[in-house]
Amino acid sequence: MGKMAFMFPGQGAQYIGMGKDFYEQIPVSKEMFELASKASGLDVAALCFEENEQIHITEYTQIAMLAAEVAMLKAIEEKGIKPDVTAGLSLGEYGALTASGVMSAADVFKIVRKRGIYMQEAVPNGGAMVAVLGLDTAVIEKICEETPGMVTIANYNCPGQIVITGEEGAAQAAVEKLTAAGAKRCVPLKVSGPFHSPLLTGAGEKLAKELESVEIHDIQIPYIANVTADYVTDKSEVKALLEKQVSSSVRWQQTVERMIADGVDTFVEIGPGKTLSGFMRKIDKSMKVLNVEKVEDLDKL
After folding, report:
1. Alpha carbon of 277 to those of 10, 186, 256, 272: distances in Å?
2. Is 66 in contact with 112 (CB distance < 8 Å)?
3. Closest to 231 measured CA to CA, from 192, 264, 202, 187
């Protein structure tokens, strides 16, 4: 008998209308949007469902995405469906924390609202993120190490897709070398800063102060952290890992490979878009992948 994993996407998959059918049709999902509003001091339903520009600004994107993900998660849990393991990409790790029982939904919303603000505030002028397509990971790592200035790997997404992050000048210099080394394409990302780089260490430190007042519960469902691509076995490690996650590489490919090695053969992406499902096809296309993005997807699940 194979195992099932729940996985939660990160920033970038957001769109107006995400989670609206859950809000309108499933009471527990509506409760989650209302809880997110209460915890953040924002009208999260309006942010998610009404035309606005804020949804693409980090400090608002994060709480909006997470509210939609947790609303969908609670609808799934209400059906009695539980995973064997859970993980999320960057912001999505907070969806995984909720699924694992480590943090309450109210605390997760409170922390992610602050995380979005701190990451937005920490953005130095001239930061950049670039997706590097079709080049060996070791080559990218070497070029980043050898490029003067601050440029490092933000995301190990899947084979053939790595995201670099750092100072704009250093990122541009790295792109020239990466192109010369044979990268198929280098695509600048429309983000407001060099996320998952040491330039955001300060944001992580502020987040750590917020986390001091949050209760961490026993781990009910195993989850894998972005920073280590390994299971968190001791709840006392959670806060330090979340602080580090803001400025460290997201090891998504390694996370998925770890789950597959442990017998997971069914992956359920919960949240807007199909980003993680796309990565899965590149990591191991033999895996079964389901998406829960609309209410009708619950029946398929």
Report:
1. 13, 21, 11, 11
2. yes
3. 264
- Which run of H or of E encompasses 115? helix 105-121
**Contact status, residue 252 vs residue 155, Cβ threshold 8 Å:** yes
List beta partners, residue 88: 8
User: How far out from the chain centre does Cα 64 lie?
Assistant: 13
Judged by DSSP in three states, 262 sits in coil
Annotated catalytic residue 286: no
Tokens of 199: 């330039």
Backbone angles phi, psi at 77, to 5 degrees: -60, -35
| Residue range 111-142, pLDDT digits in tens | 999 999 999 888 766 689 999 999 999 999 99
DSSP string across 218-231: P-SS-BB-TTTSSB
Which amino acid does the sequence have at 283?
I
Q: Is 56 a catalytic residue?
A: no
Q: Which domains does the chain have, with CATH numbers?
A: 3-122+198-300 (3.40.366.10), 127-188 (3.30.70.250)
| DSSP helix/strand/coil, 285 | coil
Backbone angles phi, psi at 92, to 5 degrees: -60, -20
Nearest to 111 by CA among 63, 64, 71: 63
Q: Which of 29, 37, 90, 248 does the annotation list as catalytic?
A: 90
Catalytic residue among 37, 40, 196, 247: 196
Query: 53 phi and psi, to 5 degrees?
Result: -90, -20
pLDDT in tens, 59-94: 999 999 999 999 999 999 999 999 999 999 999 999
Q: Is the pTM of this model over 0.90?
A: yes
